[in-house]
Amino acid sequence: MPLTLHGTRSDRAFHIVVLSALSILVFFLILLIVSLVATADLTLFLSSLFSDEARFAISLSLITATISTILAIFISIPAAYAVSKFNFPCKDIVDSLLDLPIVLSPVALGAVLLIFFNTPVGSFIDKNVIRFSFAVPGIVLAQVVVITALAVRLLKSTFDSIDPRYELVSRTLGCSKFRAFIKVTLPLAKNGLISAAILTWARAVGEFGATMMLAGATFMKTETLPIAIMLSLGSADVNKAIALIFILIIIAMIALFFMRKVMHGSYHL
After folding, report:
1. Among residues 63, 64, 99, 59, which one has the least CA distance to residue 79?
2. What angle do CA 181, 264, 18 make, to 5 degrees?
3. Which residues does 203 contact at the CB level (< 8 Å), separation at least 6?
4. Global confidence as pTM
């Protein structure tokens, strides 16, 4: 139930402080967006928005983010379920290790990946299996490494919230563990799965540090939207950078809108 400004003096003071903090934050974010609009030259902005480079960066970002999200969710579902429902030795260590990509700098993660592909094993993979270093598959790998930890954490929270008695009932009715997972747990986790997929996809679209370290920042080759922004600023093309930033903002807002629609629907199940 939404709070109102009625109540005791201390309650009103508390409400004012909370709402003031919210107002300051919202005003600051709006101010940043307005500053982008005020800085841009409309003609140059539109030409940059529909340039070949912008279209390439958009398509590459959307394609690689979609592939990496599919891979990350495919890996994260069983991993998150295992951490949520199973007890095994060193579980706390494993759980902390899975969170490492969330707290570690993406640049550091990308550097670790680059170093790995300079080892004998990594070099063999790079030369004989799939070329990751300074290539498009490296973008996907960097995104997967960054977003899988986020997907595992979101999905673990989803599985934690599901009462284990549902699975136990299905087991008493003759379902195997796998069938109970597929027929009972996954449908109950549907909204959490969709929300995790949307958030990880949006995070993949905006991934920069690990991608730049592993795949590089090559014009019209490994140029995702964040890398295109960096290259535009590096060449002092501010209008192109602003156009690309607005594209990222629009993608993020659409993703967040759909995520909130999914979460809102989950409250009415």
Report:
1. 99
2. 125
3. 146, 147, 150
4. 0.87
Predicted confidence (pLDDT) per residue in 234-253, tens digit = 988 888 899 999 999 999 99
Give alpha helix (H) positions in 104-224.
Answer: 106-116, 120-128, 136-160, 165-172, 177-180, 186-188, 190-205, 209-215
Max intra-chain CA distance, the chain: 72
Which has the closest alpha carbon to 149: 222, 194, 199? 199
Task: For residue range 87-107, list pLDDT tens digits in order.
Answer: 888 888 988 888 888 888 999
Conformational region of residue 240, where left means phi above 0, alpha means psi within -120 to 50, and beta covers everything else? alpha
- Cα 49–chain centre separation: 24
Three-state secondary-structure class, residue 162: coil
Q: What's the start-to-end Cα distance of the chain, in Å?
A: 19
C-alpha dihedral over 231, 234, 237, 243, to 10 degrees? 40
**In the structure encoding, which two tokens stand for residue 128, read together?**
């004989």
Beta carbons of 138 and 132 less than 8 angstroms apart: yes
Q: Topology of domain 43-266, per CATH?
A: MetI-like fold (1.10.3720)
